[in-house]
Structures are given as C-alpha cells and as structure tokens.
Amino acid sequence: MKSFERLVLSHLKEITDPLLDPLQFAYRANRSADDAVNLALHHILQHLDSAGTYARILFVDFSSAFNTIIPALLQEKLSQLNVPDSTCRWITDFLSDRKQHVKLGKHVSDSQLISTGSPQGCVLSPLLFSLYTNSCTSSHQSVKLLKFADDTTLIGLISDGDESAYRWEDDHLVTWCRENNLELNAVKTVEMVVDFRKNSAPTTPITLCDSTIDTVESFRFLGTIISQDLKWELNINSLTKKAQQRMYFLRQLKKFNLPRTMMVQFYSSIIESILTSSITIWYARATAKDKGRLQRVIRSAEKVIGCNLPPLQDLHASRTLRRAGKIVADPSHPSHGLFQTLPSGRRLRSIRTRTSRHKNSFFPSATGLVNKAKSRL
C-alpha cells in the first residue's frame, strides 16, 4: 500500500507544487527547515534596521494536527488546486471509514470506524496536511505566515507601535482554524518579542481562544534555538553538549582499533552532523568564543582519529555556497529574489544592511561568499 501511496504522492506533488503557498517549506524540492528559519530571520532583521520598529513572533501549535483533517473539506481544497476528480475521490475514500483499535499489552479494544484525519505514519499525511492548510496565508505585507507542515509561525513586523495588522492576522488565524476543524493549542503556543529600541514599552499579551499566550525569551524553532536577543549562545551550548556526548563513542571505537577511514566516516555522520546542524543560520553571527568551543570538539576528534578534519569555517562556507546555489537555481523559491545578479552577470548584488546583526545573517553573508568564490574563478 505504501508503494501505491508514493505513486499518488509523486502525482500530487507534480500537480500542486506550482500552486502551493510559497511560504510552505515542507516536502518541496530545494527547500528545507533552514530556509524557513533564514527567511524568517531576514524579514525580522531587515525590519529592525529601521528606527522605531520591533517584531512579534507567534509560534503556533495545533492539537493533533494530522488527526483533524475532514476528508470532504480536503477534497474540495484539492479540486481548487486542479487535482483530477478521480484522484480526489480516491483520497477521500482512503481517509474514510478506516478501522482503528487500541492495543495495551495483551488487551485489544474493539475496532472503531474513523473518518477524520490521516493515518499516523502514512506516506501521504504530511503533504495532505500541507494542501489542507494551503489557503491559510497572511493578507498584510507587514505580517509573514511561514509554514513547515504543521509548524506554523506568524511574524508581525511592527512600526510606530501599530499592531493592528498583526492582531487582525491572529484573529483571522483563529477563525480560519475554527472553520477548517483545526484546534489551536493555546497552552503550547508561545510568543517572542524582538525589540532593540532603547525606550521600549511592555507589549500587550496576545489572546487566542480566550487564553493568554505566554511570552518566552527563547524557543526551538524548527530545530534551532532562537533567543529574543538574536544571539546564538543557547543554540551553540546545545550543539556542543550533544557533540561532546557523542565523542565518547568515537573514543570507544579507538579502543577497538577500528580503521581510520571508518572512524572518519563515523565522525562525519555522527559528530560533524551535529556541529554543522543549521550552521548556515547561526555561524556568521556566532561569537569567536562560541565558535572556538565547537572547534575544540573537532580538535579532540582529530587527536582521537589521528588525522586532520575539516575546520568549522570551511564547513560553513561549503554549506552556505551549496544552499545559496540551490536558491539561485530555483526561481520558484521564496528567497530567490534576494540573490540578484548584477548587469555584468558575474556577481550578485550586495544586500543593503544597517546593522551588524543583519549584515552577518545568512543572505548578506552568503552573497559575499558567492561573490568571493566567483572572483577566484
């Protein structure tokens, strides 16, 4: 059955991808969670370059998101996306009248027929949810609604203290969810305020579904810890701790005299993958002290393995160039317009920045790296 689901998945992607919300980053070619975080930060940092501005970020949590899909409503949405009627009917039939039971130890409950939601572990579930929520978008230019499957983030770019657009979009999101059988989890939904004004005033809390939303100083957004001061110490603390824990296994392999090539492979897949997690997001803005802590892990691995390993700076440069290259090559990517080629066709136009925190973010630093690489050719 899963093989047939994959065929349907490929068919659906081919039809719907050009019509999907460009700010939906999940399960689409040349897009990743890092792209979503980088674009979110770019909107925020670009906005904060102007005086008298701040940003409010609402990290939305849904209750049992995949379990709330209404098949008939999904069929209507698929039809609007030009999905053939026969495919729509098959998906509706696939999601309707499914048998489900609960097993606890040796005890098994009676079977129940389920006609709501998508099966857990289903190949089609993530894409079906993305299609189901495709019409959930922002109407105001100053409010960005980014999605990664069921991870939804609302970013209000506030100027002169006017939060009307942001609050309107908050209310609209609640209304849209109610009309589409999605339940907002107000307990797990949190908000972060990024405000570098010298004379900032306390913000009025957001209320969703009659519940006041908690304000946090940091949040793990699509795997990356973001702090309200937009510094990366907490995120790098987490990466360093994980990498140091995995060094134990590398030392154990050394005791068993594992060949050096296999130890390098183990390091690359188990330790380096942690050190470079979301590196395009945080490296350029990280402090020398934080970078040094991560580099010390690499030096420790070099001593255990007995050979040189790629330094953190080179890993960042290669991954940034690869990520920028994919965005430049994909005109449909929502960040494609940020990489503009100069009339000469050889270099990219530099992105104007007013603060170092914006200058050292992904898009301005990636532009510099791309231009530097081209000048060497």
UniProtKB/TrEMBL annotation:
Limits of the Reverse transcriptase domain: 1-226
Pfam family, one: RVT_1
A GO MF term: methyltransferase activity
InterPro entries: AlkB_hom8_N, DNA/RNA_pol_sf, RT_dom
Signal peptide: none
Name of the protein: Reverse transcriptase domain-containing protein
